[in-house]
């Protein structure tokens, strides 16, 4: 079968590229390949930041409805769990992840974009969770990640109504970090990832884990997670390098190695 998810390397950036023409509909093969690529990225020290990209036509226009339409509760549970596992593996990557969204990011495609830390979107992109118009609701993280990102009321508006928003409006909602013309999306996302890859990636990974894990618990538990991860960074060479550089030369001069 054709390879539908590829890992391409751009310096210290791993580009997870969806390639299922015409609109990257997410089927079972995409689930499996996305999970496998995410696991490879997590294990590779040479990849210090990640871009998820679907090409110039569509990020991903949603799950493959033809594959889903005749499923029953027992079989859709399997289908849904594999998609959720793949998207969750992207969300849990111990590296910064940027989704580069051109065209459509709908349904499961939107849920994949929500798993990224940042979203760079085309001005004319269409982003949303239209599952309600199919008689279901988002089942691969949409009802959980979207409210955490933009707030409960706005998330309910988008999920209950099923209407997509334009990329330019997504920034105002807090759904995207940056909106640019379509031909600038991938270069902007790659530039952002390259800047992050040159930073203190161990500290970024620890901060990402502290934020994400802390959001799922109470304040006291979150503070304990933060304290433990903060202390752990004092066993890294990056901490030694960063603080020694600060003492000698002032802020922002350190060169980090991710060790």
Structural description of this entry:
This protein has about 260 residues and is an alpha/beta fold. It has two domains: about 190 residues, Alpha-Beta Complex (2-enoyl-CoA Hydratase, Chain A, domain 1); about 50 residues, Lyase 2-enoyl-coa Hydratase, Chain  A, domain 2 (Orthogonal Bundle), CATH 1.10.12.10. Helix content is about 50%, strand content about 15%. It has eleven helices and nine strands. The strands form two sheets. Strands 1-2-3-4-6-9 form a six-stranded mixed sheet, sandwiched between helices. α4 packs across α5 and α9 packs antiparallel against α10. The model has no long low-confidence stretch (mean pLDDT about 95).
Can you describe this structure in just a few lines?
The protein is an alpha/beta fold and 259 residues long.
Structural descriptors:
alpha/beta, 2-enoyl-CoA Hydratase, Chain A, domain 1, Lyase 2-enoyl-coa Hydratase, Chain  A, domain 2, six-stranded mixed β-sheet, 50% helix, 15% strand, globular
Q: Biggest sheet: strands side by side, in what order?
A: 1-2-3-4-6-9
| CATH class membership of the largest domain | Alpha Beta
Tell me how many strands there are. Answer: 9
CATH structural architecture of the largest domain: Alpha-Beta Complex
User: Spans of 5+ residues with little confidence (pLDDT < 50)?
Assistant: none
Strand content: 5-15%
The N- and C-terminal alpha carbons lie at a distance of 38 Å
Strand pairing plus helix content: what structural class?
alpha/beta
Percent in helix: 40-55%
Mean pLDDT: 94
């Amino acid at each position: 079968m054709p390879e539908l998810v590829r890992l391409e390397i751009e310096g210290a950036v791993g580009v997870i590229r969806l390639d299922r023409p015409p609109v990257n509909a997410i089927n079972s093969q995409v689930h499996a390949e996305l999970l496998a690529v995410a696991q490879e990225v997590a294990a590779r020290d040479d990849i210090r930041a990640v871009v998820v990209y679907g090409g110039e036509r569509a990020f991903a226009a949603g799950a493959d409805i033809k594959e889903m339409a005749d499923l029953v509760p027992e079989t859709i549970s399997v289908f849904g769990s594999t998609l959720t596992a793949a998207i969750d593996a992207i969300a849990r990557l111990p590296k910064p992840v940027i989704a580069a969204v051109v065209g459509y990011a709908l349904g499961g495609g939107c849920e994949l974009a929500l798993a990224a830390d940042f979203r760079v979107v085309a001005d004319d992109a269409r982003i949303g969770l239209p599952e309600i118009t199919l008689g279901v609701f988002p089942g691969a993280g949409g009802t959980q990640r979207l409210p955490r990102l933009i707030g409960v009321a706005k998330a309910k508006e988008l999920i209950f109504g099923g209407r997509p928003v334009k990329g330019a409006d997504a920034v105002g909602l807090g759904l995207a970090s940056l909106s640019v013309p379509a031909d600038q999306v991938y270069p902007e996302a790659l530039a952002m990832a390259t800047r992050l890859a040159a930073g203190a990636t161990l500290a970024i990974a620890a901060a990402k884990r502290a934020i994400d894990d802390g959001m799922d618990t109470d304040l006291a538990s979150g503070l304990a997670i933060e304290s433990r991860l903060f202390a752990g960074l004092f066993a890294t060479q990056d901490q030694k390098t960063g603080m020694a550089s600060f003492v000698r030369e002032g802020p922002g001069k350190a060169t980090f190695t991710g060790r």
